[in-house]
Design a protein that fits this description.
One of its GO terms (molecular function) is nucleoside triphosphate diphosphatase activity. This is Nucleotide pyrophosphohydrolase. With about 110 residues, this protein is mostly helical. The chain has one domain: Helix Hairpins (Orthogonal Bundle). The protein is about 65% helix and about 0% strand. It contains five helices and no strands. Helix 1 crosses helix 3 and helix 2 packs antiparallel against helix 3. The longest helix is centred in the middle third of the chain and has 29 residues.
């Protein structure tokens, strides 16, 4: 059943069925992530967040999916486990942003007293 496959397996199958891996080098994947993130950001330009969520949720989902798909492909190319790299980053962020200093506060960690 297709639902039992991981997202990475589904993305790889889609790409490999079309013989597109040859075009998906790390540089071009990083560029594609940025371009798709910009398309996501463009949905919010000159509008309130509420307005975009109400009228463009379908487009948000599509652009976010594009960012995530390219991110999965880049991680796969570099033999990185997405869950592991997220766990590592959360541990780093936990040290930089302890609850005692950051709860309810949107300051950057360098601005903590």
């Amino acid at each position: 059943m297709d639902n039992e496959k991981s997202s990475m397996e589904k993305v790889n199958k889609f790409r490999d069925d079309r013989d597109w891996r040859q075009f998906h080098n790390e540089k071009d994947l990083a560029i594609s992530i940025s371009l798709e993130a910009s398309e996501l950001l463009e949905l919010f330009q000159w509008k309130s967040a509420e307005e975009v969520k109400e009228f463009n949720l379908g487009r948000i989902k599509e652009e976010l999916a594009d960012v995530l798909i390219y991110s999965h492909m880049l991680a796969d190319n570099l033999n990185l486990n997405i869950d592991s790299i997220i766990d590592e980053k959360l541990k780093k962020n936990n040290k930089k942003y302890p609850v005692s200093k950051s709860k309810g506060n949107n300051n950057k960690y360098t601005d903590f007293e």
